[in-house]
Amino acid sequence: MIMERFKLDAPPPVPNRDDLRPTDQALIVDQTGARLMRWGLSVSWDGKPLFNARAETLDAKPTFRPLLEKRCLVPMTAYLEWRRLEDGTRRRNRIAPATGAPAAFAGLSDGEAFTIVTCEPAPAVAHIHDRMPVILDAVDANAWADSGRPFADVKFLLHPYEGALMFEEQVPERAQGELF
C-alpha cells in the first residue's frame, strides 16, 4: 500500500519499530525517493532535538526558514497522542484517518533529520490535545512534496485534517495481582 500511495518504484526501507518515537529512524519521502531519517532536528541553541514545527510560524522562525523548500512527507497510518485526565493520569490515544489508508504528515528536512509540521487540532480530536500533525491527502501531499513549488504556494495546505478521524483511547492494563 505504501508503494502505491507514494508512487515508489521499489519497496521502501522499513523502520524497526511499529510505534515510532522522536529520535527514531522513520520513513520519509521527498523528491529524491524514500529513505529512513532521524525524527528530530538538531539545533545549536537547544540540547533537545526539535520534533515538531508549528505551521503558523514556520516562515517567521530562523530555524525553519531555510527548510521551507526542503519539504518531505512522513508516511503514516496513525499517530499516538497522550491525553491528560482530570485526575492527572494520562491515557494514550491512537488517532488515524477513518479510511484506514496510509496518509502523510507534512514534514521539513535538513537532509539528516526531519521534523513534523503541526497545526490546530481537528474538532474530532481537540479534546485529546491542543495540536495535531498536519495530515495531507494524496493531492495535497503531492503538492507539498513538489520542491519546484515555493513554500508560499503550499502554505495553505497546513491546516487541521478535514477528513473523518477515528481515535481509540488505550486503557492501561492493570498490573498483575492488582486489586480493584
Please describe what this structure looks like:
- This protein has 180 residues and is mainly β.
- It is built from three helices and 13 strands, in the order αββββββββββββααβ.
- The strands form three sheets. Strands 1, 2, 5, 6, 9, 10, 11 and 12 form an eight-stranded mixed sheet that branches. A three-stranded antiparallel sheet has the order 7-8-13, with no helix packed on it. Strands 3-4 form a two-stranded antiparallel ribbon.
- The longest helix has 8 residues.
What key phrases describe this protein's structure?
mainly beta, 9% helix, 3-stranded antiparallel β-sheet, 13 strands, hypothetical protein yedk fold, 3 helices, disordered C terminus, 180 residues, single chain
In the CATH hierarchy, the architecture is Alpha-Beta Complex
Spans with pLDDT under 50 lasting ≥5 residues?
175-180
Q: Beta-strand level of the residues, as a percent range?
A: 35-45%
| Number of structurally distinct domains | 1
Helix content: under 10%
* Cα-to-Cα separation, first versus last residue: 43 Å
How is the main sheet built? 8 strands, mixed
Structural class: mainly beta
Report Rg: 17 Å
Instruction: List how many beta strands DSSP finds.
Output: 13
- Count of separate DSSP helical elements: 3
Shape: globular
CATH class: Alpha Beta
Order of helices and strands: HEEEEEEEEEEEEHHE
**Can you identify the CATH superfamily?**
SOS response associated peptidase-like
Overall average pLDDT? 90
